[in-house]
């Protein structure tokens, strides 16, 4: 019981230290092997915080795999998509479009928001299609983003 408690306390601490020290390898390891979804989500966000606009090549494949894994928590997939979009990954628009039917409404919203940040005709075409989505909140947001 004590070991479990220590693991719950020290894992987030180690994760935050990895962000502060710009420890890309540790963040990638937490994303790949983190036992809990919130750890993997924070690792994906940490990779973005370590490198806000420049791709970390070692992390790119891990983040892409995260977006495509249907057995991953939706909020983790959304965070991985967000980081890739901020890095303007060339494959992220396609990965997001493929993931959209499989994730919950909130994650769909944030993935669509990630598409919005891309300067890509494929992403813009998907946003245009989402303006008539069955989720009224997403559809309204997309119409607002498109200036309609």
Can you lay out the helices and strands and say which pair or pack?
Blueprint: H1 2-20, H2 24-33, H3 37-50, H4 57-68, H5 74-86, H6 92-99, H7 105-116, H8 121-130, H9 136-145
Helix pairs in contact: 1-3, 2-3, 2-4, 3-5, 4-5, 5-7, 7-9
The main pleated sheet reads as: none
How many strand units?
A: 0
Tally of contiguous helical segments: 9
Mean pLDDT: 85
What proportion of the residues is helical, as a percent range? over 70%
- Beta-strand residue fraction: under 5%
Secondary-structure element sequence?
Answer: HHHHHHHHH
Distance between the termini: 56 Å
CATH-derived architecture? Alpha Horseshoe
Compute the CA-based radius of gyration. Answer: 16 Å
Query: What is the 3D shape?
Result: globular
The CATH topology is Leucine-rich Repeat Variant
Can you say what the CATH homologous superfamily is? Leucine-rich Repeat Variant
Taken together, the total number of domains comes to 1
Helix vs. strand class: mainly alpha
Characterise this structure:
By secondary structure, this protein is mainly α. The chain has a single domain, classed as Alpha Horseshoe (Leucine-rich Repeat Variant). The protein is 73% helix and 0% strand. It has nine helices and no strands. Helix 1 packs parallel to helix 3. The longest helix has 19 residues. The chain is globular and about 45 Å long. 32% of the residues are buried. The N terminus is likely disordered.
């Amino acid at each position: 019981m004590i070991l479990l408690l220590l693991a719950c306390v020290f894992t987030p601490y180690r994760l935050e230290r990895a962000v502060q020290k710009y420890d890309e390898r540790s963040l990638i390891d937490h994303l790949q092997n983190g036992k809990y979804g919130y750890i993997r989500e924070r690792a994906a966000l940490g990779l973005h915080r370590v490198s806000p606009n420049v791709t970390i090549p070692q992390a790119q494949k891990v983040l892409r795999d995260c977006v495509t894994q249907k057995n991953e928590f939706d909020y983790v997939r959304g965070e991985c998509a967000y980081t890739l979009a901020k890095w303007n990954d060339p494959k992220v628009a396609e990965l997001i479009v493929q993931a959209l039917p499989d994730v919950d409404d909130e994650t769909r919203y944030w993935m669509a928001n990630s598409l919005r940040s891309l300067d890509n005709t494929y992403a813009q075409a998907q946003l245009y299609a989402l303006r008539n989505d069955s989720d009224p909140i997403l559809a309204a947001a997309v119409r607002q983003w498109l200036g309609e």
